Amino acid sequence: MTGTAPAVLEVADLHVWFRLPGGGELHAVQGVSFTLAAGERLGLVGESGSGKTTAILALMGLLPPTATVAGEVRIDGTNILAGGEDSVRPHRWTDLAMVFQGAMNALNPVRRVAAQIAEPIQLHGRASAAAARQRAGELLELVGIPAAAGQRYPHEFSGGMRQRAAIAMALACEPRVLLADEPTTALDVMVQAQILDLLTRLSAELGLALILVTHDLPLVAQACPRAAVMYAGQIVEAGPTDALYHATRHPYTRLLFAATPDLFGDDPVTSIPGIPPRLDRPVTGCSFQPRCDRAFEPCPVTAPRLREVTAGHVAACHLNDVPGVPGRPARPDAPAVPAPAVPVRDAPAVPAPAVPVRDAPGRGVPGQGIPAQGGPGQDAPAPAVPASPATDSDGRP
Amino acid sequence: MTVPAPREASPPSATPSSSAPPLLQADNLSTRYPVRRLLAERLARRPRRWVRAVDGVSFTLRRGEMLALVGESGCGKTSTAQTILRMVEAAGGTIRFEGADITTWSQRRLRPLRRRIQMIYQDPYESLDPRFRVRDTVEEPLRVHGIGQSRSERRHLVTAALERAGLAPAELYLDRYPHELSGGQRQRVAIAASLVLGPALLLADEPVSMLDVSVRAGVLALVDSLRQDGSLGILMITHDLSTAAHFADRIAVMYLGRIVEYGPARQVVRDPRHPYTRALLSVVPQRDPRAQAAPQILTGETPDPVDIPAGCRFRARCPIAEDRCATIDPQLAPAPAAEPVRGEPVRGEPAAGEPAAPADQDHLVACLLAGTPPAGV
Fold it and tell me: What is the pTM of this model?
C-alpha cells in the first residue's frame, strides 16, 4: 500500500447492487477502492446519486436487505465483509462509526443529551451506568460542549451544538474511522467552519481516520488533504486535493469546479449539461462520456480504467492515455504538465488500484511534486498506446 | 414598543442615472414577533417580549439590479422578504414599491400589486403540486389573476414563460408532471410560473440550495439573465456568499435583524469593512486548496434576537470591539477610506500618491471601527 503510515481502512473493489421491485438491479457502487491511514482525512465528493453515501453505508453494513455487497473492507487487514452481517457487527461503532446526514435532527427530543450519549456505551458493554455517564461528559467536553450542558434537552441546543453532540455520540466507542455524511450541510457557514475545525482537530488528536462525504467541492478542498470524486458509482479521480484543482486529470472534476461559484473567481460558472446515466442498465464506455466536453473515439466504446497519472493521483479518463491530445483535461491556469508520462499499464483485470496513502495530514501540500513528474522527455516512451483496440470511428453512437 | 433609534433616511444609492423612483425601497423597516408568555407570566403582568426579527433595515433596489441579502440563519433575511411581501406586518419603517408607500395598504388594495411581485422558493420538490402538469402550474397564476381572455392566449403566455425560463421548446414540457422532471427543470418551471405574470420584482429565497451542484450554475445564470433587459429587479436571499459575490450587483450583509454592511458586491467581498463580514468571508470555502487565508472562526452563534444587546449587536463576538462599542449602536454610514488592503486593489481605488479617497458613499458599514485594517495584516 504505502510506506508512510499503515492503513487503518482498506476498501478494495467495493460493489453494491440494489434489487429493484420490478426486477432488475441497480449497480449503485461499481468497484470503489481506497485506503486510509490513522489521522488522515479523505473527502468523498459527488452529486446526489453518485453512490457516495451508499458506499459508506456499505462499509458500516447498514444497507437494506435489498442490497448485495461485494468486495473487501479491511480494518487492520481483517476483511469485515467476509462473513456478512455477523462479521460486520463487532466492528460497527467500535472500529467504524458514522455521523449520518441530518444526525443533529435525529436526537431523541424527550431525553437529555448526555443520557443519549451514555446509552450506547452501556449497551456495548463498555462501562457501567455510572461510568457511561462520566464518559458521556468527557465526550461532550471533547467536542466542545461543557459537560454540564449534557443535562439539557436537544431543543435547548443550537444546530451547531446538536451536530457536536451527534459527533460525540459517534465517538462513544472510540472508533478508529469516522464516516461523516454531509456533516455541515444544514449549518451556517460560520458553524460549518466550527464543525470542520472540530473534525480536523479530532482527527489529529485521536488519530481518527476521517471520511468526509459531501457534494461540496470547495469544502473538501479546504478540509481534506486528499479527495476522491465519484460519478455514477465509480471513483473517477482521486488524489491530493491540491492536484485535483491545479492539475485536474478528469473532465468531470474540472467541470464540477467550474460549476461552483468562487468567492473571488471571476470566471463564469457553467453548469454541466445532461444528467448522470441510469445505473439499472449496463453502461457502455465511459459513464461520463455523454456529458463530457472532451469525449473522443474510445470514450463511447471502452470504459477507461482508473490508473495512476502521477504519484498518488489516479484518474479514469482516456485523455490521460493519449499524449498530445488537444484539450487534456487540465485547468488552463494549471502548471503546464506535459501529457501523462506514466505509460499505460495494460494490466489484466485487476481491481482498480487503491488510492495510495501518500499524504498524511501535516505533510504539507503535495501538489508541487506533480509538474516535476512528467518531464517533456518522458512523452516519448508512451507512444500512442491505443487506449483500446476498438477506437474506430464507428464507435460513436 | 421597540422603536429603533431615530436615524436619517437611508442614504440614496449613488447611481446617478435614475430619475424614476427605485423599484423597491425599504426604509428603517422593522418586524417583530411576540414571544409566547406562560400563563403565570401573564397573570404576573410580565411585559410582553418580542423577537426583533427585522430591526431597522434600509435598502434600495432598482430595475435591472440584483441585491443579495446574505447572513446566517436567524439574521432576519427571510423576515425582511416576508415583510416586503406584506405577509407579515411591519412594526415600523416604510416599504415603497415604485415610489408608492405600500406599508399600510390593505390586502385588497395590494391585490393588483401581487402579480408584480413574485417569489421563487427554495425547494422545487415541494413548491410544485405533484398532480399538476407543467402547463397547469404555469397557467394557474394567470387564472387566479384573471389574465388572458382565451385559452389560446393563456397558452401563448405559458409557452413564452417556459421558454424564457430555459425550457425550450415548451411543447416538450407542457404535459409533464413534476416527477418527470429533474431538480433543475422543476426549479425552471417554478421560475416560469412566477414570470408568467410579468413581475417587476422577483424575490428569490435560496433559489438553488436544493439543487445539485452541476445544475446550480444554469439556474443561477437564468435568474441573472432575467434582469438583464432592465424590466425587473431581483432580491436574492442566500446564505451562500460565493453565489452572492458572483451574481449580485449589491450585497447586504445582515446580522441580528440589521444590515451591517451594504455595497457593491465586489467591494463588499474584496474590501469588507465590518468585522462580521470579514469573519464570514474568511470561512467561506474556496475552490483552490491553497487559497484559504487563516480562517477567522467566531465562537458561539448568533445571539437570541429577543435580547439584542445594547450598543453594537455584534460586540460580544467581535474580535476588535472597544469600550465605546458597548454604548453606541452604530448605524450604516459610508465606509471611511481605509489603508490599502493587502491583495488586489479595489476597483476605483486611487493609485498610490493620490490624496486619500473620500469616504465611499456607495459602500455602507455599521461599525465604529470600519476604517481599521483587517486583523492580521
Answer: 0.81
